[in-house]
Amino acid sequence: xxxxxxxxxxxxxxxxxxxxxKSELFNLRFRLATGQLDNPMRIRxxxxxxxxxxxxxxxxxxxxxxx
Length: 67
Known about the structure:
Blueprint: H1 3-7, H2 11-34, H3 41-66
Helix pairs in contact: 2-3
């Protein structure tokens, strides 16, 4: 997902999507270990989405501290 879509979300929505992405990553890693994963590139995409969400949350946190 593009970071612009993440930026349009509220903090609660971002936290919810972060939780969902982490559980998806767990499931993907589990399927990789059992040999049932069809698209291994999905792991990379999910990791990058997690990083995007965390970055946006941190930016907002720092912005709130300045204000």
